[in-house]
């Protein structure tokens, strides 16, 4: 059987990398020949989880077609978030928990999408459905992914399925998920040694909203005021990135993981800034706005932006 790549989205987070590794293991147990790869280097949080459970980071690819004919996608489906030559390979499987947008295939495929907090929650359910035992280290990596995506089960995206998965996986992995989870999340909040250009690209996704190219980035911190001391530098980097990549609007969500509050920085035209204000029913002040309780790009940011841009 020819090899297939399994990978998550660009600028991968713990879900994108961790779930790709776990799903590749599952598919290999089911008779496929797969390799988990990544579309970028792991961030500090993901590196912490990989080291904790004894995994090496997947190799990074720029293109898939030179090596494989088929791929499996996890934690994304939108082409602009995928490998650069996604149009040159066949997608055979998708496991995701996001909206479905601009996704088309020539042939039938396995597609599983559920409105849960993390893709690893779905993969955990698939292990159970197929009756395949989850090794301790893979359980730890999947646990890490769910903790990351749900902010230790505090995100509004969290479901009862995520909670059950966390409890079950923590037991297999032999860790206290609250203690480990907080340590892992904190590992990803050190922004002092990174440039603004690096930070706005660490966890960023592009969305097509009614013909406009909107970039939404997010960074997690434990000291929001300290992060906002770099506001002008962030705005300058966001503006430069927008000009270089043709973004109509660039939003940076800075989230305090301890109190689940965020502040947003926004650059764009007067029109797109107005649409942002309409989406959140808030006024920007010097390109900045407080968004208390907003922590989820998937559930609390993209849907209102989509509604505003499509109105």
UniProtKB/TrEMBL annotation:
Which residues are listed for Mn(2+) 1 binding in this entry? 9, 13, 75
The enzyme's first-digit EC class, named in words, is hydrolase
User: Which GO MF terms does the UniProt record name?
Assistant: inorganic diphosphate phosphatase activity; manganese ion binding
Cross-referenced InterPro entries: DDH_dom, DHH_sf, DHHA2, DHHA2_dom_sf, Mn-dep_inorganic_PyrPase, Oligoribo/pAp-PDE_c-di-AMP_PDE
Q: Where is Mn(2+) 2 bound in this sequence?
A: 15, 75, 97, 149
Q: What's any one GO cellular component for it? A: cytoplasm
Name all DHHA2 domain ranges. Answer: 181-309
Q: Which UniProt keywords apply?
A: Cytoplasm, Hydrolase, Manganese, Metal-binding
The cofactor named in the record is: Mn(2+)
**The enzyme's E.C. designation:** 3.6.1.1
The record's listing under Gene3D superfamilies reads: DHHA2 domain, inorganic pyrophosphatase (n-terminal core)
Any binding details for the cofactor? Binds 2 manganese ions per subunit.
* Taxonomic superkingdom: Bacteria
Pfam families assigned to the protein according to its UniProt record, in alphabetical order:
DHH, DHHA2
Identify the NCBIfam families for this entry: PRK05427.1
Q: What is this protein called?
A: Probable manganese-dependent inorganic pyrophosphatase
Species source reads Lactobacillus crispatus
Name of the encoding gene: ppaC
